[in-house]
C-alpha cells in the first residue's frame, strides 16, 4: 500500500466569496487567510495549512485532488510507476509546491481524465483551529495511526475498469466495497481505502459528471454537530440534496448539501474505520440503512 490519504482538494468557483461563506458559515471550516498571488482562498480543518483551495474559475467544479504519500520514497516509486504505465507525469515547480505547502508534488491524470496531484511532505500549521461555527474538531486523524485525510471524494470514471486498475495497481488503494446502486441500471461504484483506517478515501462512479466530482465528504465527531450544520444550512438557504440518512457500507450518518456552483458535500459522522491491511472487500446492493431521500434541482421541482 502506497498512498496515505486524500490530502486536499483544489476547487474552481465562479463565486469564490460565496464558496468561502458556505465553507465557513455552513460547514464550519476555518478561513486559513493565506496569501496567494493568484487570489485563491483556503479552508482549514486541522493542522494542515488547508484542505480545500478555492480558486476563481470560469466554471464551477473540481480542479484537482491532492493524494498524500507518507515518505519521499513512496512518492517517487508511485510517480515512476505512473510514468512506466504510460501516463504523463509533470513535476511541480518549487513555487507551485510552496503554494500547496508541500515539499514536492507531480501532476497526472487518471484514465478518465481526473487530475491528480501526487505529493509528500506537507508543511503543517500549528496555529490552533478555530471554527467560526464552534465545531470542536473535524475527523481527519485517528489515534496513533495518523492522518485520515480531509475526508473522501467520489470521482466520475467513464473509463471505469482502466481507472479502477490505475488506483488499485499503481496509486496503491485497496477496494473496500463494490456498490450496485438500486434503481440505477448498470451503475457501479468502487469504494477504495488508502493506507489508513477510513473506510474509503476515494470512490469511482462509472459515469461522467459535469463538475468533475460526484461528491466530497466532511466528517465531524458526533450527530449534534451534524444537526447544527443542518440548522445552519437551512438558515443560509442551502439546497439539501439528500435528507439525513445512514449508509450501509461505511456507516456514515449524513446529509448532502449543494455548495455554491453545485458540488455536492456530504456532511456526516460515525464513519466506519477498518484495518487496511486485513479488510476483505464487500459487495453491496443497497446504499442506505435508512433515509437519504434525494432531491435533485430541476428534477424534483
TrEMBL record:
UniProt-listed InterPro entries: Glyas_Bleomycin-R_OHBP_Dase, Glyas_Fos-R_dOase_dom, VOC_core, Xdiol_ring_cleave_dOase_1/2
Family annotation (Gene3D superfamilies): 2,3-Dihydroxybiphenyl 1,2-Dioxygenase, domain 1
GO molecular function: dioxygenase activity; ferrous iron binding
Domain named VOC: residues: 5-121, 149-270
SUPFAM superfamilies the UniProt entry points to: Glyoxalase/Bleomycin resistance protein/Dihydroxybiphenyl dioxygenase
Domain of life, source organism: Bacteria
CDD domains per record: BphC1-RGP6_N_like
Signal peptide: none
Keywords on record: Aromatic hydrocarbons catabolism, Dioxygenase, Iron, Metal-binding, Oxidoreductase
Cofactor: Fe(2+)
Family under the similarity heading: Belongs to the extradiol ring-cleavage dioxygenase family.
Protein name (Swiss-Prot/TrEMBL): VOC domain-containing protein
UniProt organism field: Halioglobus maricola
Lineage summary: Bacteria, Pseudomonadati, Pseudomonadota, Gammaproteobacteria, Cellvibrionales
